[in-house]
Every structure is written in C-alpha cells, then in structure tokens.
Amino acid sequence: xxxxxxxLYSIFISALAKSLKDRELQxxxxxxxxxxxxxxxxxxxxxxxxxxxxxxxxxxxxxxxAPFVEQFAASKGDLNRANKACHEGAESTRKLKxxxxxxxxxxxxxxxxxxxxxxxxxxxxxGLAALVDGFAEAYSKIGSNL
Length: 146
What we know:
146 residues, mainly alpha, Serine Threonine Protein Phosphatase 5, Tetratricopeptide repeat, globular, H.polymorpha DL1 DNA for region containing 9 open reading frames, Dihydroxyacetone_Kinase, DhaL_dom_sf, glycerone kinase activity, kinase
C-alpha cells in the first residue's frame, strides 16, 4: 500500500467501527441493518473528511469511496448499486488532474502514454473498487440482504 491510502483506510475503518459501536450502545444492541450500516458509513466518511481535504474530483480513493457511501444510503443498502457507483467513481479518475496523493507530484508527461486508453485511473480508487467487488461477491454468495 503506497502513498497515504493506508492512513485513509485506517481512519475510515476505525470511524466506521466506532459509529457502529456507538449505535449498539445507544440502542442496547441491534442487528446491523442496511440503514444502520449506511448511517455508519456516512459517519465514517464525515470523520475522514476531518483529516483530509481530498474530495470527489481530486483524483484519490475518495472518488470511489464517496459515491459508494452515497449510493449505499440512497439505494437503502443495495450493495450492487453502491459497487457500480464505486467503480464509476474510480473510472472517472482517468480524466482528472491529481490534487492530492502521490500522483499530485508526478509530472503530467508521465501520464501521456495512457491518453490513448482514456487516461490512467487513480490506483487508490481502483484498489478500493476491487475491495468493494470482493465484498459484493461475498455477500451475493451468502445471500445477504445488503
């Protein structure tokens, strides 16, 4: 894992776990429903935003994460739709100029060989999309409602 993605994942996952735990304590226990998971994902993204200025459009893993979180909530937990939004966000980075992360200090000339392919996507965004693919595939095999 290169760049700052490890730190971003750590902050996001820790905040997600804290949000889920806080909900459990407030409610005296619960079953994780799509609504609870969506709210906790949103809390985790909001927490991440307190530590990074990166937002969708900055050519980072946020370009995949934010659409995933937003679509998961909007679709009431439809993991397939959220996965699609995540992939679309990751692919959108092909045409973006990097404002944060390692790619932000790589010369634009380095990206020119990939213009014929539509540009080079952000590796962090593509990596996150692959991770979400794994979750979606696992849930489809166990028949989860998410």
